[in-house]
Amino acid sequence: MNIQSCVEVRNEWDIVKARQSGRNIAKELGFGTVDQARITTAISELARNIYLYAGSGEVAIERVENGGKLGLKIEASDSGPGIKDIRKVMEDGFTTSGGLGAGLPGVKRLMDEFTIDSKENEGTIITSIKWLR
Amino acid sequence: MDKLVIQLLNESRERIYTRWMDEMERVRDEHRLQSITDRAYEETNQELFEIIYTHIEQNVHKPTDRMTEFAEHLMKIGWRLSYITQGLQNFRRIILAIILDANQSNEKVFAMYDEIDRWIDPIVNQLINESAKNWENTVSIQKVALQELSAPLIPVFENISVMPLIGTIDTERAKLIMENLLTGVIKHRSQVVLIDITGVPVVDTMVAHHIIQAAEAVRLVGAQCILVGIRPEIAQTIVNLGIDLGQFPTKSTLFKGMKSALELTKRQMIELE
Ligand SMILES: Nc1ncnc2c1ncn2[C@@H]1O[C@H](COP(=O)(O)OP(=O)(O)O)[C@@H](O)[C@H]1O
Ligand SMILES: [Mg+2]
Questions:
Q1: Is the ipTM of this complex over 0.90?
Q2: Around Cβ A8, how many Cβ atoms within 10 Å?
Q3: Residue A40 and residue B201: Cβ atoms within 8 Å?
Q4: Which of A57, B19, B210, B261 would be a feasible disulfide site paired with A50, CB 3.0-4.6 Å?
Q5: Secondary element (H or E) of residue B247
Q6: With a 6 A CB cut-off, is A96 part of the ligand 1 pocket?
Q7: Are strands B160-166 and A113-119 parallel, antiparallel or unpaired?
Q8: pLDDT at A1 over 70
Q9: Histidine kinase/HSP90-like ATPase domain: which residues (chain A) (predicted)?
Q10: How many domains does chain A have?
């Protein structure tokens, strides 16, 4: 089984596709049902943000290892408008689309590690890891 | 079609046939036809070859009925249209090579090329159009079928309805949920609606947002929502996301939800002696 996958996100069904491959990999790595749900939900949030705010991009999912620790890494990247104020989008409830504004802060809480790398007018790369306990 | 071309095609039929069959064998894997028996593949090739030739005999610039039927039949049994279009393209390539071999003047060769393009392209185009139409048809029928299944509101008891949701919720489905809830609540005079999300694989902020909005809308038409079927892992992720579902009651199972719906409508379940 593939311990790595990359899904292009161009429409809503691609979000489902990214989620599914994330769930499969999480299962394969030995994550329990709750963590599987957390990982799948995080992928859903990031993929939907790509679809909504950047139009298109990709979600890469892979197994990572660090000092004997095993984990799953999500990397969501796009060449969209970028995020101007990263502090602001990490506030609960901040949204520019009339959503709940809970996506990014939510992903941070669902996962163990979370970084945003974004440049205005160039794009955004969000990387997030969940470690296996 | 130019007489010379037709003459050439008829004279070289055997030669074209052998080369064409070789080509078709070579591309067999591309059309995922490995599982077909060699014999069936050869027979189909023969038939296609013959059908292509009838186009030449009848000098038509669109698929003959026989070609259309042949294509429809193959698609029905799971072959790809690309098998036929590739067959036509291979055919074109081979006759062009044969024309080149025939030592005509450049002008003549060019005219023949042109002729053959004008002959084959409309056939390919129409085959593709027809198959695309078929697909669109199938997809739109399935879409309707799916829509009917996607967000049913079922009146269970007087004033109590249930909406069981199964599968992924996308934007379109979210709209249907809202519509069906509102029209259904009014139609069935529901006082309590149970939205059952047992079968929803992922509850992210978008899904949660739609559910919150739907519950709010239901409240505005004078009824109340109870969210049921929240699996333990979903409850956890909702908490992690920081979503507040406190505006309406939630229950882990449909059964518990039904009990409180009955209470809300001043009824209860009792066991008979
Ligand atoms: N990939 C992205 N590119 C540009 N802007 C983004 C991206 N992802 C998120 N944003 C911005 O961050 C805001 C907050 O995102 P999020 O927390 O997911 O909440 P919501 O999607 O509900 O608005 C969005 O409204 C949007 O303005
Ligand atoms: Mg979002």
A1: yes
A2: 13
A3: yes
A4: A57
A5: none
A6: yes
A7: unpaired
A8: no
A9: 34-133
A10: 1
Q: Which residue of chain B is at minimal alpha-carbon distance from A35?
A: B233
State whether the beta carbon of A56 lies less than 6 angstroms from ligand 1. Answer: no
CA–CA separation, B58 vs B51, rounded Å? 11
Beta partners for B163? Answer: B195
| Chain A residues within an 8 Å CB radius of B201 | 19, 40
For tokens 């996958």, name the residue. Answer: A5
* Cβ within 8 Å of residue B5, ≥6 positions away: B99, B112, B115, B116
pTM: 0.77
Q: Count H helices and E strands in chain A, helices first.
A: 4, 5
Q: Which residue segment(s) compose the domain that A77 sits in?
A: 4-131
Look at residue A103 in the predicted model and tell me its pLDDT. 97
Mean pLDDT of chain A: 96
CATH class for domain B154-264? alpha beta
In this structure, what CATH number is given to the domain that contains residue A83?
3.30.565.10
Instruction: Please list all protein residues whose beta carbon sits less than 5 angstroms from ligand 2, which is an ion.
Output: A 49, 103
Length of chain B: 273
Answer yes or no: do A48 and B208 touch at CB < 8 A.
no
What length does chain A have? 133
Tell me the chain B residues in contact with residue A34 when contact means C-beta distances shorter than 8 Å.
232-233, 236-237
Indicate the CATH number for domain B3-147: 1.10.490.10
Predicted confidence (pLDDT) at residue A75 exceeds the cutoff of 80 = yes
In angstroms, rounded to a whole number, what is the distance separating the alpha carbons of residues B102 and B100? Answer: 5
